[in-house]
Design a protein that fits this description.
about 80% helix, globular, single chain, about 0% strand
Amino acid sequence: MWNFIKALSIFVGTIIGVGIFGLPYVTMQAGFPVVLFYFLMLTGVAIAIHLMYGEISLATKSLHRLPGLVGEYMGPRWKNFTLWIFMLGLLGALLAYLIVGGKFLNLFFSPYFGGSEAIYTLIFWAIGTLLIFQGIRSIAIIEITLLLVFFGLLALFFVKTTPFIAVDNFQNIDWKFFALPYGVVLFSLWGSDMIPEVKEVLGKDGRAMLKWVLISGISLAALTYLFFIYIIFGATGSQTSKEAIAGLVQVAGNGIIRTGFIFGIITCFTSFLTLGLTLKKGLWYDQGLNPHLSWFIACFLPLFLFFAGLRAFIDIIGLTGAVAIGLVGIIIVLLYKKFLWVEFNRKMNPFFYFFGLFFVIGIFLEIFYFVYAK
């Protein structure tokens, strides 16, 4: 049972990351019915894809992440392609955590100690980088602790904002922005990169428990997001800010804002830890790089991108969700097909091809939005 709690904490703590702060803003743009539609659809799709990947991971004794598994079943060309997509998705996520995590740290501490946003981003990055270097055992306990704090702060948020929530905010729809929530919602629900870590934590209990960790973890994340949207968008409406928290000052005052900054720091930090570790291990186990070099690439490249000026986090998580994660979803479907044939001489259910088509449509929807509708 303890292994299940640790595994679920790591999985949920990673999924509930920076994406949560983009959800109220895209809800304000497109309308709550549109976002609810995406959640109902994408939660089921995400669970199905994660279960496919989980089945493959359990059947493989190696420590490979997705690129290594693709190479094992589909050959070196697919492995190299998957590695680039794998790195693109994780780097996009890590960059988003740096942007928002550093911003929240700055907003909370700068009134007392001064300093620029870049300095606080470096502090956020340095602490996370040190823990990533130490590995999964130190992270597991941190994830459990911070997840409990996270839900405690979410409950406090609810109590403080309830008087300001207006039901009318949830009724409007703007079809111009119909495609906007897709990438952000998909990004917010995705946690396939953590499946090997979850398997590692579960140990001998993996075969019995992994499925329930994946189903309960994604479902819990989806419900948490909808609750967060209800709290933030319900209270701020048309004043909802891109990072969700700042807009609360107009309706709830500075006191709740301070709590919001703590909430943001915790949420971003837990996911930065686990995804940084995942990228490090992917380069280490799948590409055979030195573990220290893998750590250096995983931690320093997002920092370089941040100081290169890539800081528009809604755009980053939207494109990362639709394009990078969409391509990962397609690869997992193709990998699952090959896995069933190689291991069991069995064909994949033709219905599963629908998921691949679904991700292709999503990629085109997101690109259409950024080119024509934005």
